[in-house]
Amino acid sequence: MLAFLLCFNLLNHISEYLFLTLVILGLLKIFYEQSLSHIPTSLDLPLIIFLGWILLTLPFALDPSYSFVEWRKALPRFLMFWFVLHVVRNQSQVKAILHAFVLGLGILCLIEVVDFFVVGGNAFSMDVRAGSFFGAHQWLSNFLIIGGPFLWLSWVSQEYVWEKVMNGLVGCVYPLAVFLVHTRSVWLVVLVQLGLFVLYRITGKFLLSLGVILLSVIALFVTLNLSSEFQRSLSTNDFSNTSTLNLRFNTWKVAIEDIQQSPIVGAGFGKHTFRTLHPDLPKEIHKHIHNMFLGAAFQLGVPGFVFFLVVFLKTLSASGTWLRDSVGHESFHSQLALAIGLMTIGVIVRNSFDDMFHGAVVYLFVLFVALGFCLNRGQVEVWSWSRGEGR
């Protein structure tokens, strides 16, 4: 149910209340049974250090009360990781969560596609973008890049006729939603995910394939920006107009200057801190930084940026390890590890042009990462204590 509700941004508060209720029930169960267990993972320390660093920077924030509220919001989102890790026990539970999410993703895509045409959207114009019904196109775009790999995983792991029908219907509406969201970074992410998938299936080396794909994307951007004639031709097209990219470049320059002013503790945690620091920006500069890593450096300083980056690097490293240790490409463990790796790359690339790693996006990200650790819990020693054992 929770994985289904998280697909709809307008239901975000309901999802949070449901999750917090489940956490409270879990704590009451531990208290009643007087038993406790801990499953160590490679993400424990990075997450704890990142959340702890936010607390340490609060006294230096531009608006400490706002930054504390944002930290309080972030805490349960990352708490999802440990909750799932200790609740989900087997592959059948993972598949049930996966199918619930895919169902929610399909309904989300269908509603947003229908709404796009109802409000008068033109498929070949950037004036209207799919995603306004449940928030904004930025939210939909992040759900799409998270959901794509798991839509594929659900398809290859289906066992029943109803699953085949559901995946078939979602598979039909998903590409249409990807196109109608009219977000070029989403199109880039989908190409990167497809390229990484194909290259990995050919080479069998995930991290090597990842390096080749990312270097190819960087080389493409450098090459395209070398030609002024090409830039002029892009600016005349509705889909390839570079004005929004130039707006981001202007904003990033200001953010980098701010980071140089406070490189250790930053300006304060929270997406709106940038707007608070610069209330009267000209129209050539956006009120949001539009890059989650640069945003982390601005809000939390260079150390905070490093701690935040390590979370993603550790996730990619874990995915590579699971793929290396799994038996064959066709096992569910291997396919889940690949889907998590593709999702992580998607979040990184997409949010290099935006900063939407908030709310349900974080919940879904850590949920799926935790599922990977759940199916690989046999590789670690689980620490447990109960009063009856006297340990």
Q: What can you tell me about this protein's structure?
A:
There is one protein chain. The longest helix has 34 residues, at 292-325. The mean pLDDT is 87. This protein is mainly α and 391 residues long. It has helices spanning 2-5, 12-33, 44-57, 64-87, 91-118, 137-156, 161-180, 184-203, 206-226, 228-235, 243-261, 273-277, 292-325, 332-350, 359-374, and strands at 35-38, 383-386. It starts with a helix and ends in a 5-residue tail after the last strand. It has one domain. Helix 6 packs parallel to helix 8 (184-203), helix 6 packs antiparallel against helix 14 (332-350) and helix 8 crosses helix 9. It contains 15 helices and 2 strands. A two-stranded antiparallel sheet has the order 1-2. The protein is 70% helix and 2% strand.
User: Order of helices and strands, N to C?
Assistant: HHEHHHHHHHHHHHHHE
Largest sheet: 2 strands, antiparallel
Number of strands: 2
The low-confidence parts are: none
Question: Residue share in helices?
Answer: over 70%
Give the integer mean of the pLDDT values.
87
In terms of DSSP E residues, the strand content is under 5%
Strand line-up across the major sheet? 1-2
Tell me the structural class. mainly alpha
Q: What would you report as the Rg, rounded to the nearest angstrom?
A: 21 Å
Oligomer kind: single chain
> What overall form do the CA principal axes indicate?
globular
Number of helical segments with 4 or more residues: 15
Distance between the termini: 36 Å
Counting structural domains, the number is 1
